[in-house]
TrEMBL record:
Record's protein name: Lysosomal dipeptide transporter MFSD1
Lineage of producing organism: Eukaryota, Fungi, Fungi incertae sedis, Microsporidia, Enterocytozoonidae
Function: Lysosomal dipeptide uniporter that selectively exports lysine, arginine or histidine-containing dipeptides with a net positive charge from the lysosome lumen into the cytosol. Could play a role in a specific type of protein O-glycosylation indirectly regulating macrophages migration and tissue invasion. Also essential for liver homeostasis.
Molecular function per GO: transmembrane transporter activity
Quaternary structure note: Homodimer. Interacts with lysosomal protein GLMP (via lumenal domain); the interaction starts while both proteins are still in the endoplasmic reticulum and is required for stabilization of MFSD1 in lysosomes but has no direct effect on its targeting to lysosomes or transporter activity.
Record-linked Gene3D superfamilies: MFS general substrate transporter like domains
Its membrane topology: Multi-pass membrane protein
């Protein structure tokens, strides 16, 4: 197995464990108690906001730090996730929401910066060669952690208690921290090192495309984040699901998307059309949330639409290396992480405030549908700008690489 494939395998398993523990609060929601009372939707949103808020800045700081200590940053990030889960587990024992939020702050800093580190390294390893497949595999295995959380955690919490589950999560984080530090031995790709020595600026026209990509990423985050925070309780209140049924429905979204992720990655690597796939993803998300709001079809219709949309949405990742130079890529990914976490901070709070106005979740769903309409407008604008500026965001990676290799061989002859 090549070194780059080994890196993806180890990083993906670590991300699986990290995501499993990350979504425990949403999966078991009211099984957690704070101050003697079951956790409310607002308190769950606070935990996710505490996770995301520091990461509106921290990935940039760690991006600069990585330039000095390279892989040594992994030891710092592993320490953050370890401390974060230790504090969170203690908070569950003490039923303290403030201490639990503090633990989520530490955990979020470690997880998000680790994600940026891995995405940057994978992009450098696979640039021009099955990048969408490699990125899709990394994201899919990570999402499998969310599937397992929503599928197994509610029943585990009901059978053995939330404290037992959180203690088990702490054990998993110890294993994840060990895997994170094991990546220290993997060297930076040669082309990444060379690009840092001789920086190359991206074309001026690409700055406009990058700005549009930033906007689309932020809107996707603002749409996706509140849904996962409120969905377990929304399905219970609005559609009379049990806690276990709600968790398993959400697990189906991630579980189905995992199997589709590689297929979508293969398609865009060989055929292109990444932006049109992203557009189709936004349309599917609109159908799903319009159904949650208007109830014109059964809940499985929405679940199926979201399951299809999730892997298609991830196709914006392979677009990023096309609009920035290799030397700018790590900081660009850090900025994207900051934007996503800004969305993860603000949007769930807006949704939780709307729940106070409309406890039946209709106002929150209307808010999400409004964001999707804005997103559709931005994606269409990105497609038009890409066509006008010749950005090449819809070009297939593999056929382009093969053509380039053929031309190079002809020149050498």
């Amino acid at each position: 197995m090549k070194e780059r494939d080994q890196f993806v395998a180890v990083a993906s398993i670590a991300l699986f464990l990290l995501y499993f523990v990350y979504d425990i609060p949403a999966a078991i929601n009211s099984s957690i108690a704070f101050g003697g009372s079951p956790a409310t939707a607002h308190q769950v949103a606070v935990l996710y906001t505490a996770y995301a808020l520091p990461n509106t800045v921290c990935p940039l700081a760690f991006g600069h730090l990585h330039g000095f200590i390279r892989n040594g940053i992994l030891f710092i990030l592993a320490t953050f996730v370890f401390l974060g889960q230790a504090i969170f587990t203690t908070a569950i024992l003490m039923e303290s929401i403030s201490l639990a939020a503090l633990g989520r702050v530490f955990y979020g800093i470690g997880l998000e910066s680790f994600f940026v580190f891995c995405e940057s390294r994978i992009t450098a390893y696979y640039a021009g060669s099955e990048l969408a497949v490699a990125t899709g595999l990394f994201l899919s295995i990570g999402r499998l952690g969310t599937v397992f959380t929503f599928y197994f955690s509610p029943q585990t919490a009901l059978s053995y208690g939330a404290i037992f589950l959180c203690k088990g999560g702490f054990v998993l984080i110890c294993l994840a921290a060990a895997l994170m530090t094991s990546l220290f031995t993997y060297k930076s790709p040669k082309d990444e090192d060379e690009s840092e020595e001789t920086p190359v600026s991206a074309p001026v026209s690409d700055s406009h495309l990058l700005f549009l990509v930033y906007q689309c990423v932020f809107l996707f985050g603002a749409i996706w984040a509140p849904f996962y925070n409120i969905a377990p309780l929304m399905l219970q209140i609005r559609f009379s699901f049990s806690q276990v049924e709600a968790g398993r429905f959400l697990g189906c979204v991630e579980g189905s998307s995992i199997f589709l992720q590689s297929l979508v990655g293969l398609f865009v690597d060989h055929c292109g059309y990444k932006l049109f796939v992203v557009l189709a993803s936004a349309l599917l998300i609109l159908v799903a949330h319009a159904n949650f709001l208007l109830r014109f079809a059964s809940v499985p219709v929405s679940i199926g639409a979201l399951a299809l949309a999730a892997p298609m949405m991830a196709c914006y990742w392979p677009c990023i290396p096309k609009v920035v130079s290799p030397s700018q890529l790590p900081m660009t990914l850090s900025r994207i992480s900051c934007l996503l976490n800004l969305a993860y901070t603000v949007s769930p709070l807006v949704a939780s405030l709307l729940l106070r106005i409309s406890p039946d979740y209709s106002a929150a769903e209307l808010y999400i549908c409004g964001l999707i309409c804005v997103l559709l407008y931005k994606i269409v604008g990105l497609i038009w700008a890409n066509q006008k500026l010749g950005g090449g965001l819809n070009e297939p990676e593999i056929s382009k690489r093969c053509k380039g290799d053929t031309n190079q061989n002809d020149t050498s002859v």
